[in-house]
Amino acid sequence: MPVLAESLPTAGAVLAALVVLGLLFRPKRNAHLRLPPGPPQDPLIGHLRSMPATKIADTYHNWAQKYGDVMHLQLPGVSFIVLGSHDAAVELLEKRSAIYSARPKFALYELMGWKNILPFISSGERFRRHRQALQTYLTPESSLLKFGDVQTRAARRLARRMINEQPEDEEYERYLSEFSTTVAVYAMNGHEITSEDDEYLALGDAVARTFTETGPPGGTGVDMFPFLGSFPGWFPGAHYAAVGRSLRPIARRLLEHPMNEVKEQRAAGTATESFLLHQLERPDALLDKEELQGAGATVFIGGKLTTLSTLTVFLLAMILHPQAQLKAQEELDRVLGEAHLPTLADRKDLPYVEALVQEVYRWNPVLQLGIPHVLEAENEYRGWTIPKGAVVFANIKGISLDASIYTFPSSFTPDRFLPT
Fold first, then answer.
1. What is residue 224's predicted lDDT score, i.e. its pLDDT?
2. Residue 231 falls within a domain, yes or no?
3. Does the keyword Ribonucleoprotein apply (predicted)?
């Protein structure tokens, strides 16, 4: 312990010296540019001291009220551009996607084994093949046909448990987690969860930890200085490297086990409809083995995390806004009566329920900051210069509060999405 205690200041001094030397000798390529506005920054370290550790999207939104909807933040060696309006996000990330589609290097996620997860793949041929494989299979129309029955069974089981068992708060969370895992794993490899001790339930919770316990995506010390990935966790800046290494077996399990199951079932003639089965049976394989494992994990992670977060926000909204809950219940009773419980096929006949769902998405978006993009060539916008290599992302939470689009944006008002 004394040796370790003595080594900490030394390691910190070495790291600090490396950072300072890197800053001092880095070409000041942005000094001549007219960058978008942003908060005051410090010499050498830019906005490092003022970057928020919590409520990041809210902080960026508050800053945008003062500095504008296109905001520049500087960290050692990299410029960040935060887009806080719908117009700016569409113009740059969609209309100019040819130069705004690259991804930064997510060194920590790669360390854990997530290099083939779609949001972390940079633009190019590999990205296009992954996206094609996912988009051609998981269309909204086909998903209803392929997975609607399983989703309906899982939803009714969830409803019965919440009504009949009067669970405590932590049990609510467990029930929602089980539902989201059930939906996600079936889409991935056709496995339907029917018991509380199913191995995929524990795996789903463990996979969620690989994202909730590893800091902001692309924003850890390992992402900024990838060489820290091999350093012990006590070394300054390398904490998340140790966490990432400890979580690597979880990623490996999700990548390998589901596809092995599908291959075994396919050989036995017992495989059921799923994304992985569909890709394995394609005569024109889009993805190699590791890429297909990553694409399958993308299906699971996207379905698990977004569904769980959305349901949690929905329950919060219903608790805080019982009048909206009552209005939705009245529509369900009026349209469906006692004939049957609602299914996905009924959505078209339930305009208020559909509007309520859209307002849940807007009111508290589960993905509050968009996936970061990297600008591949210097670009002009509104008289500002956005430098090549800048990391650009949308503040989705801020856009959802844009008063030029949404009247009284802080209020929960499903009626705003009703057809006029």
1. 79
2. yes
3. no
- How many CB atoms within 10 Å of residue 406? 19
Which residues make Cβ contacts (< 8 Å) with residue 361, sequence separation at least 6?
Answer: 310
* Closest among 369, 384, 407, 416 to 91, alpha carbons compared: 384
Q: What is the pLDDT of residues 108-150, one digit of tens each?
A: 999 999 999 999 888 889 999 999 999 988 876 777 678 888 8
Query: For residues 198-229, b (16+ Cβ closer than 10 Å) or e, as one string?
Result: bebbebbbebbebeeebbebbbbbbbbbeebb
pLDDT value for 248:
94
- Which residue range forms the structural domain that includes residue 397? 1-104+364-420
d(CA 406, CA 336): 31
Q: Is 335 helix (H, G, I), strand (E, B) or coil?
A: helix
Same domain, 26 and 76: yes
The verdict on 214 and 182 lying in the same domain is: yes
Exposure string for 339-377, b = 16+ CB within 10 A, e = fewer: eeebeeeeeeebebbbbbbebbbbbbbbebbbbbbbbee
Q: What separation in angstroms does the CA of 53 have from each of 49, 50, 147, 247?
A: 10, 9, 39, 22
Q: Distance between CA atoms of 373 and 201, rounded to whole angstroms?
A: 32
**What CATH number is attached to the domain comprising 390?**
3.30.43.20
By CB neighbour count within 10 A (0-12 exposed, 13-18 middle, 19+ buried), where does 264 fall?
exposed
Q: Is 262 within 8 Å of 277 (Cβ atoms)?
A: yes
On whether residue 408 sits in a domain, the answer given is yes
Residues 310 and 414 both lie in one domain: no
Q: What is the pLDDT of residues 19-30, one digit of tens each?
A: 444 444 444 555
Do 112 and 229 fall within a single domain? yes
Same domain, 195 and 272: yes
CA 32/CA 239 separation, integer angstroms: 36
